[in-house]
Design a protein that fits this description.
Length: about 170
């Protein structure tokens, strides 16, 4: 094959891989759409966690929220099923050592027992399932949750800032 053919097939294969990696998450959660920087800061402000507390981003994308959380002294855990985003966020959070963990795993199997604060940016048809996940957490310690763009069915938000909804579970 000529060099041009190799380049064509390499680009084609990469394109297919990317489409599969990004598109295939839709049945399991929301596709990647990053939260704007000002909303990331606002979400962490609303969660109002103290240094040392545990912050979890369910579907952590490129890891931006994990970085911000770590910079605020929080222990941050991300769940991400897109392997490209997982790798990228894993690399960019290495500098925080064990303060940040990024798990290549579905957040539907997340352990929320240690969580003090949770952030989610999902999609309407998964919010009911998210409500069940929160209710089924084993340790019933107080939990603050910020949902970007979508409300949690059956729950009244304590606060709303732009498209961010804060829920407090006692
Ligand atoms: C809308 S993006 C939000 C990314 C990041 N939290 C932010 O707000 O910038 C949703 C992320 O969740 C990931 N995702 C979707 N379903 C998932 C699942 N079941 N488990 C883990 N991650 C998932 C997607 O790959 C995507 O990166």
């Amino acid at each position: 094959m000529r060099t041009l053919d190799w380049i064509f097939w390499a680009v084609w294969a990469l394109g297919v891989l990317l489409i599969l990696a990004y598109g295939s998450v839709i049945p399991f959660g929301a596709p990647f759409l990053p939260t704007l920087k000002k909303d990331r800061q606002a979400a962490l402000d609303m969660l109002d966690l103290k240094p040392g507390q545990v912050f979890i981003d369910l579907g952590s994308g490129d890891g931006s929220l994990l970085v911000l959380a770590a910079q605020r002294g929080l222990k941050a855990v991300g769940y991400e099923i897109n392997p490209f985003l997982w790798l990228y966020s894993w690399l960019r959070t290495r500098r925080f050592g064990r303060q940040v963990r990024v798990k290549l795993r579905s957040f539907w199997r997340a352990d929320l027992s240690q969580a003090d604060g949770v952030f989610v940016f999902l999609i309407t048809h998964h919010m009911q399932r998210l409500a069940r996940l929160i209710d089924s957490r084993s340790a019933k310690k107080p939990l603050r949750l910020v949902s970007h763009a979508f409300k949690i069915p059956g729950q009244k938000p304590t606060q709303k800032v732009g498209a961010l909804f804060l829920y407090i579970y006692k």
